[in-house]
Amino acid sequence: MAVLRVRPSKLSGEITAPPSKSYTHRAFMIALLADGESTIRNPLIGYDTMATIEAVKEMGAEVIREDNTWRVRGTGGKIKPRTGLIDARNSGTTIRLMSAIAALSPKPTRLTGDQSVLQRPMGPLIETLGELGAKARCEGKEGRPPVIVGGGLDGGDVEITGGVSSQFISALLLAAPQAKGDVSITITGEMRSKPYVEITLELLEMAGAKIKHDGRLTKFSIPGGQTLKPINLTIPGDFSSAAFPLGAAALTGSNVRVNNLDTKGAQGDKRIVTLLKDFGAEVKVFKDAVEVSGEGDLNGIEADCGDNPDLVPVLAVLGSVADGLTRLTNIPHLRFKETDRLRALATELRRFGADVEELPDELKINGVRKLEGTRVSSYGDHRMAMAFAVAGLVAKGETNVDGAESIPVSYPDFVTDMRKLGAKIELVK
């Protein structure tokens, strides 16, 4: 197990945001389905995205790497599993989105993963794929993985909940254009993490997919039998990852600039800009960069984070030392991530001396004057590890974060970048 050792630090300088994990996953999957050769530049190469790349190969695509450019020769939707097994490792995105793509194959594929992934809800997606004509079932209890999927998609009219994971909707949107018949999808309940569906739609449109939908993304109409064209894409920088050094600047009263951020793009987590301003930080936004200057004096905020669950860890850390009450609401879906993030944040931030109340679907945090260095667990969750490392930058004494080996899932250069900015942080294996 790797440990992060962190001591109080001031930060200064600029870094480049890592590529977007969400865009990388979807780009390779669409390239798999396309008829011809796609070019993907600057993808995120981490544990989760490598699981997707291996799955894309398993489904019949040829993947060629040339330095930081990847070429994918797609299948034109003619999915032909090579072994009939996909190991999604720790990646919930991989197992959910690839389950729908695997449904296009006449032959069954078994999709599994590590212990964390085996706890992820899959039932609504697998049931819906069955209603569209696939042979699909969950081997785990209560709709959990492993799952077995195949047999092809006929089409039809289906309903699916939006309250568990937007990945269910993204999965259906990826596969539906290549169903035999037309597909109509109605989303029931509130859809959380909607921006991730918007990213899926953006890339499908790039590939020429014809998808009609209403403005609220609750109804989709997709003609079947479509052919997707190859894509040519440079993966943008990731706001979800950039939120950690930007939040660290606000927390420590420092000045940090993060480059390679498309501030006009579809990523919902660019909302970190507005939220940091709400906390009281000074934020400057450029065409391809964000700069944060903090005085270290923050005030509490209230934020509905239903569409931005990946921002909650760093927001909770900021709220721990901000004056007054911080409420992060509408986030029950955080309980179904790599770990139960609501429980993990409440438990471990209290070790720092924070005043945190865990509710079924929100966190209430009363800011305290000082955090105390301590030993905390990341629960093997990359965003927990980075959030607690940020907390350690203002905690008295030394903070040790267990389970830091998970960080490369989304931000392989996190420790290097933070050290470049002046953070007293060390990875001990």
From TrEMBL:
Gene Ontology cellular component annotations, sorted alphabetically: cytoplasm
Subcellular location: Cytoplasm
One Pfam family hit: EPSP_synthase
Keywords for this protein: Amino-acid biosynthesis, Aromatic amino acid biosynthesis, Cytoplasm, Transferase
GO molecular function: 3-phosphoshikimate 1-carboxyvinyltransferase activity
EC supergroup of this enzyme: transferase
Leader sequence segment: none
Domain of life: Archaea
Keyword presence, rRNA-binding: no
Keyword Repeat: no
Binding site for phosphoenolpyruvate: K21, G92, R120, Q167, R341, R383
Active-site residues per Swiss-Prot or TrEMBL entry: D310
Catalytic reaction equation(s): 3-phosphoshikimate + phosphoenolpyruvate = 5-O-(1-carboxyvinyl)-3-phosphoshikimate + phosphate
All copies of domain Enolpyruvate transferase, residue ranges: 8-417
Coiled coil location: none
Principal cellular location given in the protein's record: cytoplasm
CDD domains cross-referenced by the UniProt entry: EPSP_synthase
Binding, 3-phosphoshikimate: K21, S22, R26, S165, S166, Q167, S193, D310, K337
Associated pathway: Metabolic intermediate biosynthesis; chorismate biosynthesis; chorismate from D-erythrose 4-phosphate and phosphoenolpyruvate: step 6/7
InterPro entries: Enolpyruvate_Tfrase_dom, Enolpyruvate_Tfrase_sf, EPSP_synthase, EPSP_synthase_CS, RNA3'P_cycl/enolpyr_Trfase_a/b
Cited function: Catalyzes the transfer of the enolpyruvyl moiety of phosphoenolpyruvate (PEP) to the 5-hydroxyl of shikimate-3-phosphate (S3P) to produce enolpyruvyl shikimate-3-phosphate and inorganic phosphate.
Subunit structure: Monomer.
Family from the record: Belongs to the EPSP synthase family.
Protein name, UniProt field: 3-phosphoshikimate 1-carboxyvinyltransferase
Annotated organism of origin: Hadarchaeum yellowstonense
Taxon lineage: Archaea, Methanobacteriati, Candidatus Hadarchaeota, Candidatus Hadarchaeia, Candidatus Hadarchaeales
